[in-house]
Specification:
137 residues, mainly beta, Metal Binding Protein, Guanine Nucleotide Exchange Factor, Chain A, eight-stranded mixed beta sheet, three-stranded antiparallel beta sheet, 1 helix, 5% helix, binds zinc ion
Amino acid sequence: MALPITGRCLCGQVTYEINQEPLAMGLCHCHSCQKETGSAYLPWLVVPTSALQLQGTVKWYSSPGASGKDVHRGFCPNCGSTMLGRPEAIGELYSVAAGCLDDRASYQPQMHIWAEDAAPWCSLDAALARFEQNPSE
Ligand SMILES: [Zn+2]
Ligand SMILES: [Zn+2]
């Protein structure tokens, strides 16, 4: 992807800039991401927290993930756009919600994760790697 990678929420109050290639990109079909987005899945890219400069303040909501450790989910407090995730289980990394990217065409998901939770009406691209839960499992 062309650097820096930039994105913004629906209202523009929260923006970010990423100065590193994503470590991974994928689509999360877990129930929590479905609830968070109100949609079939959450398209994410993962970057070190140190590679992302945030402008504006996100509000964080935390709940336990499958590992038992908390997953922090960051959204714009004004418009509610889903923007960032910080699963404690994966260390100092952000998962960035791809729907807020300015250049959406350059996003290329590599995998489905939590495919076992996929919505029955959502067809999964068979060209991508598929993990029933997290890739490490
Ligand atoms: Zn906003
Ligand atoms: Zn998820």
